[in-house]
Predict the structure.
Amino acid sequence: MGPLIPQEIIGEGWNFFIAFAVGIGFGFVLEQAGFSSSRKLAGVFYGYDAVVLKVFFTAAVTGMLGLLYFSLFDWIDLNLVWVNPTFLWSAIVGGVIMGAGFIIGGFCPGTSVCAAAIGKIDAMVFVGGIFIGIFAFAEMFPILKKFYMSNYLGQVKLSEVLGISQGALAFFVILAAIGMFWVAEIAEKKFPKEEY
Amino acid sequence: MKTKYMNPYLAGVLLGLVLLSAFYFSGRGLGASGAVKSVVVTTVDAVAPEHAGGSGFYSKYLKDGKNPLNSWLVYEILGVLVGGFLSGAVAGRLKFKIEHSPKITSKKRLILAGMGGILFGFGSQLGRGCTSGSALTGMAVLSLAGFVTMMAIFGTAFALAYFFRKNWI
């Protein structure tokens, strides 16, 4: 069975059509959740609106459990699903730079595109910034390459690193998510909520 | 009248199903910064083809006369624009607007948005993907990189929140 296109159950020609359809769903849900508002997104870092945390972790858990169950029922071959390779140092430093960009700019790339689609001018400027940032990285690539490629650990899963089964890791991730949702609900009661 | 936003847990489940369908059909997850990268590569190739061809970065995406805009993420991001627009239309939120805290000016908000975008763009290349491509998709496939990037992004934003509070609250 799945994934359908890598196994040629559906022709490769359909791949871009599926990408477009998936994107419509992605953009629609982001906007419905309120991810088109930078002040709503930034709320998670000040406790007044934890929508980012709730949507992000619910989505990650849904995707994770979906993949594990699909694999259990032989609906999908997990060996054909892309696993991001881990280059430890660049993942950490890249993430730190992105985190700074998040609190300064109020968006991440996906949410900025979604917000630009409904007319947020700050989001359009953010997208322009992404363009410049990627261009700067590309031009600096020769001097960054060594760091970029350092500490390669392979296409490794966290469950393998911890030496536990994928199901056990999923269980702990769900527990962590529930714990965070609980804290988020308390924080939202404590800090005055504003609607943007 | 403004329509309220969707329940965040319901939105999360729906977003997870969108992600799962990307895995099921295409064997890959969501993304965003990769589409902007394709636009950067195309632009540089159009303006300075020799520079692009000789660079270790751009040439990866230009091999054998390939068009970098013909990529999964570019079509996906075009879909995000359409989907976001449709949702905004349904909810009555289509409006040209610079959203910012009353404590800062529109100009300051735009400067900060631009700076944030530059940092996010740069970081997404170093970290091999952004919040959607590396953190969300990476976590769903249980990739170590996904968890590391997610913690680095959110941890840093939380750690710096105090210093930038006047821009938001």
